[in-house]
Design a protein that fits this description.
about 150 residues, mainly alpha, two-stranded antiparallel sheet, 8 helices
Length: about 150
């Protein structure tokens, strides 16, 4: 069974590729871009012996997409993922093969949430007691990071 942490790792690695796909390519194929991502990530995961090979093949597939430029912390995280022991890499590749729809959904949801936060600002929710009017003033709110 594939755990959630492995699925999230796979989605985060896929995000590195997604951010590097040109806006023109995404626009041109906007009707089926997610199906392309899912299909190609699964196909390459079946053929790749490790994550670096998988990511390289996937970059070439999407109109020579480059990995998005990131800050040093995010780049170091990606480099660490690509140098994981073979067993850990196989687990992520297995997730990419078997749970592609879930991984793509995680990625799409993360992108959608980020866009909503950028457009509207942080989400403000009433605290539970304030919502019921039991323990706090009705105007108390809690800021939730998306």
């Amino acid at each position: 069974m594939i755990d959630l942490a492995t699925l999230e790792t796979a989605a985060a690695i896929l995000r590195c590729l997604w951010d590097g796909i040109s806006p023109e390519y995404k626009s041109k194929y906007r009707r089926d871009i997610w199906e392309q991502v899912q299909s190609r990530m699964t196909t390459h995961a079946r053929m790749a012996p490790d994550l670096a090979t998988w990511l390289s093949k996937l970059c070439l597939t999407f109109d020579n997409a480059l990995l998005a430029p990131y800050d040093s912390d995010r780049r170091a995280w990606l480099d660490a993922q690509l140098r994981q022991p073979p067993a850990a890499q196989r687990a992520v590749l297995e997730a990419l093969r078997q749970q592609a729809p879930v991984i793509v959904l995680l990625l799409r949801t993360a992108i959608k949430d980020e866009r909503e936060v950028e457009a509207t600002g942080p989400i403000m929710l009433p605290t539970a007691p304030a919502a019921r009017g039991l323990f706090a003033e009705e105007h108390d709110t809690v800021e939730v990071e998306a």
